[in-house]
Amino acid sequence: MKKRVGILISGRGSNMVALIEAARDSGYPAEIACVLSNRAQADGLKKAQAEGVAAIAVDQTVFDTREAFEAALDAELTTYRVDLIACAGFMRVLSADFVTRWHDRMLNIHPSLLPAFKGLDTHKRALQAGVKITGCTVHVVRASVDDGPIIAQAAVPVLAGDTPERLAARVLEVEHRLYPHALKLFLKGQERAAAGSLGEAQVSVNQEKALFWPPLS
Ligand code: GRF
Fold first, then answer.
1. What's the whole-number mean pLDDT along residues 160-180?
2. Is the pTM of this model over 0.70?
3. Mutate which of 7, 14, 15, 178 to test ligand 1's pocket (most atoms within 8 Å of Cβ)?
């Protein structure tokens, strides 16, 4: 049985498109049930519609409280019978209550090698720090921002003359490969755990090899 994934976005939605495309494969363990955006104007909503996926704005500005906004989000996730959330450029911090309700059922992608460079402006800060390798991480969401068990990472070299924009573009290309890969790993790990062959899904994902970009020969 394929798991039903709800994707949360705020903007462009290029990782969302990568997940939708991966999920078209009949052998992929997930199907995309819906895309929800906290911003009504998010470009990703139009892209999701064009891909034939239910796309709904849960406009945060119309709610008086964070609780009301999150209740509306939860209601949509229930309507679409979502098993697992994939945050993909979702720029609103979720409350500890929401994260607890979705414990081990919510993933996120972050454009750095966590735990380095949590938060915003990651590429600018990576360049300022002079790191020679950066990358991206898919992790399970916990209440603290950009924190939680790491499912998969991909390393991207920093090149001479990189600007935050150039680096972001190269990392983004790799994100589009990493997210579908990590979601699959996570679900396969859960299947194995449910079948009793592992104590915990995380054990299996931690045994997977790291990805490098460009691939190491
Ligand atoms: C990505 O770099 C993602 O890692 C970060 O926000 C960006 C979203 O881009 N969390 P997109 O909306 O998927 O194109």
1. 96
2. yes
3. 15
